[in-house]
Automatic annotation (TrEMBL):
It catalyses: D-fructose 6-phosphate + L-glutamine = D-glucosamine 6-phosphate + L-glutamate. The active site is at 372 (for fru-6p isomerization activity). Homodimer. The chain holds residues 251 to 627 of 627 of the full protein. Residues 46-185, 219-367 form the SIS domain. It is found in: Cytoplasm. One of its GO terms (cellular component) is cytosol. Keywords: Aminotransferase, Cytoplasm, Glutamine amidotransferase, Repeat, Transferase. Its EC number is 2.6.1.16. This is Glutamine--fructose-6-phosphate aminotransferase [isomerizing]. GO terms for biological process: amino sugar biosynthetic process; carbohydrate metabolic process; fructose 6-phosphate metabolic process; protein N-linked glycosylation; UDP-N-acetylglucosamine metabolic process. It comes from Acidobacterium capsulatum (strain ATCC 51196 / DSM 11244 / BCRC 80197 / JCM 7670 / NBRC 15755 / NCIMB 13165 / 161). One of its GO terms (molecular function) is glutamine-fructose-6-phosphate transaminase (isomerizing) activity.
Length: 377
């Protein structure tokens, strides 16, 4: 087993450090820079069906559900198709409205999660074709789907998902860009720019992992004995806040909540005191006006937390000097287009959860009461 961990203390840490490679593998065979196109093979869904889709329904569980929410932002922004995201465990109980022109998208590392399979069946029964984003080749979800985008992350052993998650973010981004290209909602120049950025992503991932690991270990020493954590983000960074909170609670057993930053005033503000660490995902794409506007709002949320003596750990992009004025701690990542930033946002959150759990003496690869895949309802 020690050999399988490749010199790392835990599978989870090894898998965190494999993310540059898994993102590259998930991307490379599917894009061409010459034509600036995304190619999705293994699709029994025609371009015409992609063009006439009225809606995308996404269902998933756990960490994969966070990739689904990020996917909503990507698909709506690039392809301008409305997206609905459901917990797979809820989908069939709300008697979803049939629409044969809606496409289903199921996201699952294992491709065997019972609730996700049931959601897929429900979508198909209502007349939709479905696409699976899945990591395990030949899994039930992929066998049932009319198209599969495999995340080439390789086997994931740690129960808490890391490299499969970032590969899912890339896979759903490719799906969004493909849909946008087929529907003519992106120009060739925009596509080329995004694909170049996607190609640059694995290098940035490696940089973040290298530069943040020691910093997250230091923060773990300061914060490992607290009882609660809050994670905040806005827009596409909000699902990353949810994921940061989930990672922490799964493996360290610290109570953690992820919240959209703007919702703080409707409840969580009441929890803030000098004992509460608040992790704020505050990255931005300096070239994107919408991203900068969202960032400004997040910055004022940080000030609201510090004004109430909360401790803020911010994730921000290199060169952001404003954030250091307001946050107690800042973890820096490189800039990237807004829709790709989540891949970088989540890396320090994974490392922070990992180091806190290790300091608390938890079994990070096999947390109590949790299973790698849940094949019963
Ligand atoms: C379990 C795992 C999680 C995972 C979730 C969904 O709860 O512990 O890590 O996110 O199932 O699994 P799936 O295989 O469908 O992505």
């Amino acid at each position: 087993i020690q050999a399988e961990k490749g010199g790392y203390k835990h599978f989870m840490l090894k898998e965190i450090f494999e993310q540059g490679r898994s993102i590259r593998e998930t991307t490379l065979s599917r894009i061409s820079l010459d034509s600036a196109k995304v190619f999705l093979s293994e699709m029994q869904i025609t371009e015409e069906e992609f063009r006439s889709a009225t809606k995308i329904n996404i269902a998933a569980c756990g960490t994969s559900w966070h990739a689904a929410i990020a996917g909503k932002f990507m698909i709506e922004r690039l392809a301008r198709v409305p997206v609905e995201v459901d917990y797979a465990s809820e989908y069939r109980y709300r008697d979803p409205i049939a629409d044969p022109h809606a496409l289903g998208l199921l996201i699952s590392q294992s491709g065997e999660t019972a609730d996700t399979l049931a959601a897929q069946r429900e979508m198909m029964a209502k007349g939709s074709k479905t696409v699976a984003i899945c990591n395990v080749v030949g899994a039930a979800l992929a066998r049932e789907a009319q198209g599969t985008i495999y995340t080439h992350a390789g086997p994931e052993i740690g129960v808490a998902s890391t490299k499969a998650f970032t590969a899912q973010l890339v896979a759903v981004f490719l799906f969004a860009l493909h849909l946008a290209q087929v529907r003519g909602s992106v120009t060739e120049d925009e596509s080329r720019h995004l694909l170049e950025e996607l190609i640059a992503l694995p290098g940035k991932v490696r940089d973040v992992l290298r530069s943040c690991d020691a910093e997250c270990e230091r923060l773990a020493r300061v914060y490992s004995s607290v009882t609660d954590f809050l994670f905040l983000g806005r827009g596409i960074h909000y699902p990353m806040a949810l994921e940061g909170a989930l990672k922490l609670k799964e493996i360290s057993y610290i109570h953690a909540e992820g919240y959209p930053a703007g919702e703080m005033k409707h409840g969580p503000n009441a929890l803030i005191d000098e004992k509460l660490p608040v992790v704020v995902v505050a990255t931005k794409d300096p070239k994107d006006a919408g991203s900068c506007l969202r960032y400004e709002k997040t910055l004022s949320n940080i000030q609201e937390v510090t004004a109430r003596s909360g401790k803020v750990i911010a994730v921000a992009v290199h060169g952001d000097e404003d954030i250091a004025q307001v946050a107690d701690e800042v973890i820096y990542v490189p800039a990237a287009p807004e829709l790709l930033l989540p891949v970088l946002d989540v890396l320090p959150l994974q490392l922070l959860a990992y180091h806190i759990a290790v300091r608390r003496g938890c079994d990070v690869d096999q947390p109590r009461n949790l299973a790698k895949s849940v094949t019963v309802e």
